[in-house]
Amino acid sequence: MELLVIGLIGLATFGVLCAVLVRQLVGRLRSVFGGLAADGVCVRRYSTEGSEGNTYWHHVYGFTTADGRYLEFEEDAAFMSQGQAVTVRYRPGRNPEKTATVMGQGGAWSPLFGHLFGITITGCFTLVAALFVWLGLDELGR
Fold first, then answer.
1. Do the beta carbons of residue 58 and residue 45 sit within 8 Å?
2. Cα 73–Cα 76–Cα 79 angle in degrees, nearest 5
3. Per residue in 39-79, pLDDT tens?
């Protein structure tokens, strides 16, 4: 019974997290392969300190849409410096600041690898939780 409860909690938690990361990645990939490209720049790079004393770098990018609006969005990309020119890809029909990404050629590939890493980790925990559910159900059946 305990394995079943632990498995169901883990399945719900990690399954939802994995699904959210997959949805975000699919949205960004849709912008990369089906969106518009615009010239952008890393307008700000700042750091925050985590509870363990780790430093986390954040990057804010600015770009002008095809209809002339200037927008900014935040996305983490390794090895990006303030003032660096990038290619921003976005979908114009859907809140461009929410669909914008620097992922891809002319930008950075690190956001892709970050997403894939997160999906792999949460996916593995989801599989372990599914195994716990299976073992818990098997235990109940005996």
1. yes
2. 125
3. 999 999 998 998 888 888 889 999 999 999 999 999 988 77
